[in-house]
């Protein structure tokens, strides 16, 4: 009989830990590739606790347990996870390693799965537990897998090719560049385990993880230009194998760990931020000399080719029409009080499907009515589903995966029929002003994203308010919707020197927001492209942003009196561009709505 309650599942885990002589265990939301979004088989945290966010972890001891989430999920975790079973902890203020050290009894053996954690996490936790008289123990098999009776199998879906015309570079060219880098660093090989890096290097995609078109696999690249691709048998069609050629040896994914012993006596690199502790353990146990570098695919993947830039613009044209059709529908149906969060998200997905070539959503749509919009990464479910009430704020953050681009857009809409309150308009306009300021900014080459973050917050700060998330994240090209190393956010404490400068060709989001707990949320998000800028009389090289997203921003919520002439000019130019691109794709009432939505203010 399957365990239906999370209390029963926690009890079963504790019984399994007792059988293994473990006093505790750590459960992250992760997979063997440290992915942000994971396959159904790896959703161990959600199965155990009910938590549906995209980041979090749990520490389980015999008589207590705690769940650790960041500020995005402060409200959500309380809605989804039973406070009688788990203490709520907020990171980075609360450290799981510290909590374990404080609460584990002396002599306790605390288990962790080395295929789900970084080496640095394990080192920190081990040191803190040892100081407290306890021990961190790597398990050979995950105990949750032993008690999760209906755990799904990893996806068996085949990998498929990403057209070289869309990628802009051949896989052979990418592998050759990495081989040259290995020679320059006097390294014999590199282990690449991040799924989007593997996909980018090989010009392949997959459907093994919802919302991210990747294939579960590992890649090792050697200084002689050859590579080994470890993927489950039956997942590589003949056309994929033929495109990769003889220089890529296709091997069973189950052989990956043992294969790391083939680096015995050689120098091999792996990225400590993107490879799990077990990879380093296997390399060292096999006699390799291990050195650490950033995954060599990360930066070139972030700097998009001309083909990828052109493809993204094409995807945005279709996506803009889909979102505009949805916003028109919402303007009609929303004030009637018959739309709820689930039906709105379903309608938006249907609009994207109707525009052609949608392969998946790029993440689960954040469809937040009223108070739910104040939950930054809200995930609607049957239990939380709310009606979009007349005269309320609705926030929808969504995106699509197309072969030529990955989109991500947030629009905040006033559901009429009455006019919005003055405070809502004030907050919305301050968010808008920050969005426009960042969109218009020029900056010298070498600028870090953290140096631009304040631009988007300044008008909120004037009113004594802020938002607890970054202003911008990198975006992949028919890959991960959240991509590094580029970002626009407050500096990470003590890590400023490791930040990535913004380079021409990078995609980022521009998404300031404001969230009034228990009332509403506001966010305005467009994607932008870093591009070179020519300024008369300028000294040095300068950059700016091209706004890529094309869909109307709700003018009903704007307090025009708070906008400068430059901001009004940006608004009008942006909406003229939206109308130019989107209008030819719409007809009838939707076109009439777009005409009105894009009128100058």
UniProtKB/TrEMBL annotation:
Family the UniProt entry places it in: Belongs to the peptidase M24B family.
Domain of life: Bacteria
Record-annotated Creatinase N-terminal domain positions: 9-139
Keywords, ordered alphabetically: Hydrolase, Metal-binding
Protein name: M24 family metallopeptidase
UniProt keyword Transcription, yes or no: no
A single GO cellular-component term on record: cytoplasm
InterPro entries with a match to the protein in the record: Creatin/AminoP/Spt16_N, Creatinase/aminopeptidase-like, Creatinase_N, Pept_M24, Pept_M24B, Peptidase_M24_C, X-Pro_aminopeptidase_P
GO molecular function, one term: metal ion binding
Peptidase M24 C-terminal domain location: 542-601
Pfam family, one: Creatinase_N_2
SUPFAM superfamilies: Creatinase/aminopeptidase (SSF55920), Creatinase/prolidase N-terminal domain (SSF53092)
Domain Peptidase M24: 312-532
